[in-house]
Amino acid sequence: MVIWLNGTFGAGKTTTAGELVALLPEARIFDSEQVGSMLRHVLDSVPVDDFQQWPPWRGLVVETIGQLLDYLGGTLVVPQTVLVERYWTEIRDGLAAAGIPVHHVLLHADDAALVHRIETDTKPESAGAGQWRLDRLAAYREALPWLRREAEVVDTTRLPPDRVARTVAGRVG
User: Fold this and answer.
1) Do 75 and 45 touch, CB atoms closer than 8 A?
2) d(CA 90, CA 13)
3) Cβ–Cβ < 8 Å for 102, 4
4) What does the pLDDT look like over 135-161, one tens digit per residue?
5) Contacts of 24 (CB under 8 A, 6+ apart)
6) Highest taxon of the source (predicted)?
7) Which of 13, 73, 78, 104 has an alpha carbon 20 to 30 Å from 147's alpha carbon atom?
8) How far is CA 100 from each of CA 29, 55, 91, 171, rounded to the nearest angstrom?
């Protein structure tokens, strides 16, 4: 199965994913951004603001998940923000067509918590990305109506990551 951890920057996707794989036997993290990185050198002549705009990214994410689960079995935890409903529908439907159950979980935090987390993030991969991430909060707010419809919401505002992971694990069985 797939546990897709959605949410904006600062919601706790990466940290929760790490905690979650420690709780679930045979669970692994699949970083679908690596698919975007792989495509970047091939599709650099097709300018986009986000690699998710490339149709091959969405198709390859579905195909890669299927291949990995066929090979490894178990559970893949995918910590990936998807804010465009059409993109999510394409991924969800592709996984369903492959017979792969998906638990779509929205990790949500209030604006004050998100801003604080983004502004105080000290992870090396976050260096210099603070303003870019803050600028994406408006798109997240716009996507909230469909996200709440499509995903199970876990409020991370006041929960430590280990409790968020236990909550998610309890909900997906």
Assistant:
1) no
2) 21
3) yes
4) 889 999 999 999 999 999 999 999 999
5) 75, 77, 169
6) Bacteria
7) 73
8) 16, 20, 11, 17
Q: 164, exposed or middle or buried, with CB in 10 Å at 0-12, 13-18, 19+?
A: buried
Of 108, 62, 88, which Cα lies nearest the Cα of 150? 88
Cβ pair 106, 169 in contact under 8 A: no
CA angle at 155 for the pair 160 and 128, rounded to the nearest 5°: 70
Residue tagged 């893949």 (tokens): 76
String of DSSP letters for the chain: -EEEEE--TTSSHHHHHHHHHHHSTTEEE--THHHHHHHHTTSTTS--SSGGGSHHHHHHHHHHHHHHHHHH-SEEEEE-----HHHHHHHHHHHHHTT--EEEEEEE--HHHHHHHHHH---GGGTT-HHHHHHTHHHHHHHHHHHHHHSEEEE-SS--HHHHHHHHHHHH-
Domains of the chain, CATH where assigned: 2-161 (3.40.50.300)
Please state, in angstroms and as integers, the Cα–Cα distance from residue 153 to each residue in 54, 56, 59, 64, 126, following that order. Answer: 27, 28, 26, 26, 25
Amino acid at 53: Q
d(Cα 95, Cα 91) in Å, to the nearest integer? 6
Q: What is the pLDDT of residue 116?
A: 87
